[in-house]
């Protein structure tokens, strides 16, 4: 198969979809890999690293989209890329369709085959291609939150761990999945007083077993959230209903009950966000302020640590890319249930229920397009 890897053009997105090691593996199996010149620079990979691995370099994004049967990307295509995508071209990347009707309609109109990293799902319901970036974003959410709690950034002016004689800051984490767990580990390691909320009692039991003593668990419901937000310094949104729009757990009226300088990091922003006041921001201008509550809502947090993230992402995506390259998307998705669950929009049809529901579009089972 001919695989194309363009340079990411989203704001401050320095990841690339494939490391030289990943390219080498695809080439070794007989595939042709084209990398857009300079695409790896942000992650510390030079064009020569790719050519030494057997990949070929193309000068422009148009060249890459023009030649590839499968495009491997990191972030969803953004508007300048829409016109470059061809009918039947396989796009293997994060899409987060439920948060963008415009993107969904554009991919319906162009007849491409959209396999979304974030909905590839194993039998145990885990999301193997979301996990590595959730690990990164979860860990980052605490370092970003800690920074914006500093007074010069508009925060309340508390140190997460406190010091002897001064109590630590309080960190509330909504959702105890991958992002929430990694955030809790980081915040707890810094000495904060941490609470994780989830609706899954079995998950809360597990977290209670493995977490250190400065992490408590609590049931997620409107009553508890309303009560807790009044006294917490850092609130991290980390919920997910796979493929669907995130539930709005913190409503606008709750902001007035918070302390001025409270920081809220909505990691779930890529699925529309779990705070009513969330609007996607970029690394160039990551925060905004409503009712003296600082909102950090960057939809591509791992893009800020591209070296770590690019390697972590390729580690997870490569086995699936190899299946698609070797068998073609139809056979690969016929053979593999996890990969079939990644199908979201195929040849003009929405084949993922959460996406169809988000925009009231007709839904067809993925099996009908295989
Ligand atoms: N902004 C960014 O750069 C990034 C964002 N993400 C996003 O972070 C979000 C979380 O991802 P993961 O941790 O991997 O998901 P996950 O599936 O591992 O965990 C989600 C958790 O949310 C819980 N949950 C669902 N509804 C809830 C509610 N009403 N209250 C409390 N908990 C609830 C679930 O029970 C589950 O434990 C996703 O939207 C994901 O796309 C992930 C990576 C990067
Ligand atoms: C998961 C995601 O949206 C990201 O890594 O940017
Ligand atoms: Mg207030």
Automatic annotation (TrEMBL):
The keyword Protease does not apply. It catalyses: L-alanine + NAD(+) + H2O = pyruvate + NH4(+) + NADH + H(+). It comes from Tangfeifania diversioriginum. Residues 4-137 form the Alanine dehydrogenase/pyridine nucleotide transhydrogenase N-terminal domain. Gene3D superfamilies: NAD(P)-binding Rossmann-like Domain (3.40.50.720). SUPFAM superfamilies: Formate/glycerate dehydrogenase catalytic domain-like, NAD(P)-binding Rossmann-fold domains. NAD(+) binds at residues 134, 198, 203, 220, 239-240, 267-270, 298-301. One of its GO terms (cellular component) is plasma membrane. One of its GO terms (molecular function) is nucleotide binding. It is an enzyme of class 1 (oxidoreductase). It comes from the Bacteria. This is Alanine dehydrogenase. Belongs to the AlaDH/PNT family.
């Amino acid at each position: 198969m001919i695989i194309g890897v363009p340079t990411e053009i989203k704001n401050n997105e320095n990841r690339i979809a494939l490391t030289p090691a990943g390219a080498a593996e695809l080439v070794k199996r007989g595939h042709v890999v084209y990398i857009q010149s300079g695409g790896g620079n942000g992650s510390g990979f030079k064009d020569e690293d790719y050519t030494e691995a057997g990949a070929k370099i193309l000068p422009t994004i148009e060249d890459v989209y023009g030649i590839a049967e499968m495009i491997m990307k990191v972030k969803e295509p953004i508007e300048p890329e829409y016109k470059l995508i061809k009918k039947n071209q396989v796009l293997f990347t994060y899409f987060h369709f439920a948060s963008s009707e415009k993107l969904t309609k554009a991919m319906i109109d162009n007849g491409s085959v959209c396999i979304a990293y974030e909905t590839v799902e194993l039998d145990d319901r885990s999301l193997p291609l979301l996990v590595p970036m959730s690990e990164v974003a979860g860990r980052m959410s605490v370092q970003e939150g800690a920074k914006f709690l500093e007074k010069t950034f508009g925060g309340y002016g508390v140190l997460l761990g406190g010091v002897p004689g001064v109590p630590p800051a309080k960190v509330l984490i909504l959702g105890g999945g991958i992002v929430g767990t990694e955030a809790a580990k980081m915040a707890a390691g810094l000495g904060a007083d941490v609470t994780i909320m989830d609706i899954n009692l079995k998950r809360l039991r597990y977290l209670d077993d493995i977490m250190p003593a400065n992490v408590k668990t609590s049931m997620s419901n409107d009553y508890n959230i309303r009560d807790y937000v009044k006294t917490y310094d850092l609130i991290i949104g980390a919920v997910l209903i796979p493929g669907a729009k995130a539930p709005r757990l913190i409503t606008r009226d709750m902001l007035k009950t918070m302390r001025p300088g409270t920081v809220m990091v909505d990691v779930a922003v890529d699925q529309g966000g779990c705070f009513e006041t969330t609007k996607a921001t970029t690394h160039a201008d990551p925060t905004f302020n409503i009712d003296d509550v600082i909102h950090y809502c960057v939809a591509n947090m791992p893009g800020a640590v591209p070296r770590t993230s690019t390697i972590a992402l390729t580690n997870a995506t490569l086995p699936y890319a190899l299946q698609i390259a070797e068998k073609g998307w139809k056979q690969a998705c016929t053979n593999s249930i996890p990969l079939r669950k990644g199908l979201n929009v195929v040849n003009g049809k929405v084949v993922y229920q959460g996406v169809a529901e988000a925009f009231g579009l007709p839904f067809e089972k993925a099996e009908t397009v295989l």
